[in-house]
Amino acid sequence: MIGNSRRRFDALAPARGVVFAPRGRTDHLIKMNLIPLMGRRDAALDYITELVRAELFTLSRKGRHDIYFYTKQLLRRIERDTEKILSILSSPDTKRREQSLLKFIDLLDAGADALESFIGFEDALARNSEDAHDFSPLRDDSEYASSEEEMTASEIMMVNQLRAFFDRVSPRVARYREYVSKSLSASNAERYRRSHEFYLEAFRSENNFNE
User: Fold this and answer.
1) Which of 49, 91, 139, 197 is deepest in the core (most CB within 10 A)?
2) What is the DSSP string of 163-179?
3) How far from 209 is each of 60, 145, 168, CA to CA, in Å?
4) Contact call for residues 80 and 40 (beta carbons, < 8 A)
5) pLDDT in tens, the chain (211 residues)
6) What's the CA gap between 200 and 40, in Å, rounded?
């Protein structure tokens, strides 16, 4: 599944190297990259929103770990795409908004990274406590159960914090997208729609988190 998705991504991805080509005769090629980049970036952010708002705690620890890891990978793809978008833009106002969005993505990346590391710590604690013998932080089943309950509560709190970030920022993201869409020609609006739909479906089908 991942191999097929990679080939599909490559087929629609903006041309490599064009963003950094000299100005002049290549300007039109540089600008052609902008619309598919925006569609891919926005689709990734929309899918992350779906993942964060999903019923995460009906999944196993492994299922949640996989979601946090994939979220982190998507956020880093968004960072790269946004940096490329910034290299193409000429409007100072739009650049400022994109830079602000990039700061928000950095914050989400830190949250996803913390959640993935947190799950890794839980797994290590479960695996290695008995082997630690005298230095084990968990001496019996009751201490393990208490520790697991505390860690689950901490994970829930971290997830809820991420959800709160999305709830606060999503209306502003929607307004910014509306602002951008008004500046697009009919043909570019269609290119954006097709890119967004393609990548959103590709992200949804790339992994199965029902574990």
Assistant:
1) 49
2) HHHHHHHHHHHHHHHHH
3) 9, 26, 26
4) no
5) 444 545 444 444 544 443 433 444 435 555 778 999 999 999 999 999 999 999 999 998 889 889 999 999 999 999 999 999 998 888 888 899 999 999 999 999 999 998 988 887 777 666 655 554 555 555 555 555 555 666 678 888 889 999 999 999 999 999 999 998 998 999 999 999 999 999 999 999 887 676 5
6) 8
